[in-house]
C-alpha cells in the first residue's frame, strides 16, 4: 500500500532551495491545489555525473554487460568489504541466483520472514524451493531466534534461510542462523534495504555466503533497476556469473575480448538476468555520492525521532542488534487506541495534504498465492498479524529538507487532537 504523488507533465518543476553534491535539494516535486508543496514518499535523483556516464556508454558502441559492469562489481565489492560481486538485473534475480548457487535440492525448504516483499518469496519458488514463513517481533518487524526456531521445527530441517535487514536495520544474522541450526554457508541475506548497514562493525555484504542488494529507483543507491550479489566464495560467484547469462560459460563481452572465441557451453540451468553497462555506469557514479546521501538519511531519521518521541500512539520500530542502520525507510507503529485514528486513516489524510506514505509490507501469509505455496507454522503468525495494521512508512530520502520533515511531523501531531475533538463533539 503506497500513496505516491507524481507530477503531471503540464506542471512546473519545483524551485530549487539548495543542492547536495550537485543534485537538487527540493521540498517537493510540485504543489497541490491549495498551493502547498507536495511531498512524495520517495524521490529518485540521478546525479549529473551519472547522467554523463550513461551518455558516454551509449556513445561507446557497447551497452550491455561489459567493462563498466566489471568495474562496478569491483568498486561495489570494495565498498562492502567482499571479495567478489556479481551484478544482475534486480535484487529478486540476485536472490534466486544465490539460492540456485547454494545447490539446495529441489523442493528444499527455505526460511523467510512473512513481513517482506513478495518478490523475495517468488525468488525462492522460482529456484524450485519452498518458502517456510517466519513470524516477526512486532516491536522490530524482524524475526527473533525464537520465531526462527519455531519455523525450523515445523519444517523438520530447513535447507537454507533468507535474512532480511528490514528498513535498513541490522539483523542478527549469526544468531538467526544458529537458531535455525544452519551454518552461515546456507544463509542468503536480503539486503535490498541495507546498502550502508553494518552488523557490529562489519558491513552487510561480507557476513554470510551470499548477500543480495537492490538498486531500484527508491533505494539508497538508486540506478532505476539492478541488483548485486556479494560473496567471499569464488566458486559461488562464478556459478552466479554463468547463471545470469543462461548458464553460458562465457558472455558476449568475454567472447569478444582479444583472444576470445565464439564457442561456449552450457552445463546447467540459467536465466537472463545480466546488468547492462548503462546501468553499471550510473551505479559507479552514484556510488561516489553514497556516503553523503547516507549522512543526510541519518539526519532525517534523527529529526523524525526527535519530533515524534513525545507523540502518543506513534512509535518508531526498535533496533535490537548492534551496528549501523542504513535508514532506507523510516517506519513507525501506529497504535490506534492511543493515537486516536488508525494507520489507513493517517495515510488517507496525509495524502489529502500532499504527503506520500507507504506500508512495508503486506505479510506474505495474507496473500492467497503464498497461503497455498508457502508453509505457515501451526498457530499462525501472530506477531505479524498484530504488526501489519500498525505499519506506516514516512517519507525518507536524502533530498527531504528539514522544513519538509517538520511539516510531516506537524501533520501527524495535529491528527490526534482533531480526532479527540471530533469524539468529544459526537459525544455531546
Automatic annotation (TrEMBL):
Gene3D superfamilies: Aspartate Aminotransferase, domain 1, Type I PLP-dependent aspartate aminotransferase-like (Major domain). Keywords: Aminotransferase, Pyridoxal phosphate, Transferase. InterPro entries: DegT/StrS_aminotransferase (IPR000653), PyrdxlP-dep_Trfase (IPR015424), PyrdxlP-dep_Trfase_major (IPR015421), PyrdxlP-dep_Trfase_small (IPR015422). The modification N6-(pyridoxal phosphate)lysine is found at residue 219. The active site is at 219 (proton acceptor). GO terms for biological process: polysaccharide biosynthetic process. Its cofactor is pyridoxal 5'-phosphate. It comes from the Bacteria. The keyword Transferase applies. GO terms for molecular function: pyridoxal phosphate binding; transaminase activity. Belongs to the DegT/DnrJ/EryC1 family. L-glutamine:2-deoxy-scyllo-inosose/scyllo-inosose aminotransferase subfamily. PANTHER family: DTDP-4-AMINO-4,6-DIDEOXYGALACTOSE TRANSAMINASE, TRANSAMINASE. This is DegT/DnrJ/EryC1/StrS aminotransferase family protein. It comes from Streptomyces cupreus.
